[in-house]
Amino acid sequence: MLAEILKKSFERYFNAPIEVWKEFADLCESIHFAKDEIIKHQHKAEKYFYFIIKGSAGIFLWKENNFVCLDFAFDNNFCGDYMSLLTQKPTELEVVALEKSEMVRISRNDFYMLSQKSVGQVIMQKSAESSFVEKQQQQIELLTKTAEERYRILQTKFPNIHQRIAQKHIASYLGITPQSLSRIRNPAG
């Protein structure tokens, strides 16, 4: 079942045979996180690559006196401190479960073992490319769109985000205060 979920989730990037995903799934272990549980602490090296079966996670960076949300991941998506996973070094990023979550994880060593196979290389390349494109798009939007426009884009990408993620995290991701987000959400109020 996990292999089919992985295959379906990844098909938009690359259509790998189900056997590839079965091999990936065989190396995964199931794990659960409570809401607000830290998955990976800041200043630590990432040991795992996560796939969210159900739930959500956020990637945060400490700035001045609080954490700033850099990204979200939801059901049927990979998440983690990918920079740390690639460099094998600690980073300032913290990964947190934003709601009760069911995930599977694969160790960094097993992840790299799979990458030594030709299909694994393609999957890693496609993952890195899609991640790069999404982050570039996010940066472009941050520099060229108003907070309200960025909020509408976020709503389109994640229609039920307000039922799942705290307003302070959404505001942080958008680069605005929770009060500004409240005004955008309720312009007449």
From TrEMBL:
Residues 23-114 form the Cyclic nucleotide-binding domain. One of its GO terms (molecular function) is kinase activity. Keywords: Kinase, Transferase. It holds the Pfam family cNMP_binding. The keyword Transmembrane does not apply. This is cAMP-binding domain of CRP or a regulatory subunit of cAMP-dependent protein kinases. It comes from Reichenbachiella agariperforans.
